[in-house]
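Troubleshooting: if your tokenizer reports a length mismatch, compare your output against this known-good record of 190 residues.
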Amino acid sequence: MKQTFYCKQCGKPHRDYASNHRQFCSRRCYIKYWHEHVSAKISAIRSVKKEKCICPECGKHFEGYFWSKRVYCSRPCAYKHTLFTHDRVVGPANYNWKNGASLKQFRPRLWRIAVFEKDNYTCQECGKRGGELQADHVKPWADYPELRFDLDNGQCLCKGCHGWKTRLDRFARKNSMVIKEIEDTWYQYL
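Known-good structure output:
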């Protein structure tokens, strides 16, 4: 149902659906309003003086607006600083460094295929053959670098079993003392 609205520029009534959100009776009124109100705000913003800044990479002086996030005088300076910062957080300097354990250095294809063939493309937990199989390290990749590509350290698991095994391994690492206590008390009842 149409409703009556009043033009923001000339104040004339016009009828339209509320869902259209029309604020003006015509395109001419819209343009007139824009020139009187919006363009004045834009020109006021443009008239703001630029601040003088110093590039932290080369020390060159340049000008920028106070709301701008620009720190460097040019893209090459920003790129040089990025490379410098990158070198400080890559490798042993990174807070998340795990003694060279990296998926980028990992040669998964040959080892994975060899593990699948060794286990005849069958999940070693549930016995399911084929499907979404994943090669799993029996002893963790990060903890045993000498066993990373050892076939005896690999087993074929389906996606579901691999998820459960990973969760159990994490739980075991976090709670190794608790598990040891449970095992000790368990053997007492046998």
